[in-house]
Amino acid sequence: MQGPIQLWDPALPPEWVTTFVQATDVLSALIGLFIAYQAYRGYRRNDSRPMLFIAVGFALALAVPFVLLLLYVALPFLSESLAAVLSQCSQLCGLVAILYALRMPA
Length: 106
What we know:
mainly alpha
């Protein structure tokens, strides 16, 4: 019996896939920072507390995991497990902050 058709070695994706993932990671971090900056400006301009939580949420959900990825690549003593756990915790806290901002009274 023959297994499923494989387009590439499952242990190593093609180079274009790796490049695409890296480019979209950078783009996501930049867009997240832009949204966080705009939300922070809205907080400062209107003294709107929900906008502050949205700014913090987007920064935690998109920018911090990217910074952790850069630190993992740059610092050889940082374990992959620690970087992954911190990244997931940051994303979760960011999403909770955004949810809190959407539910809080203005």
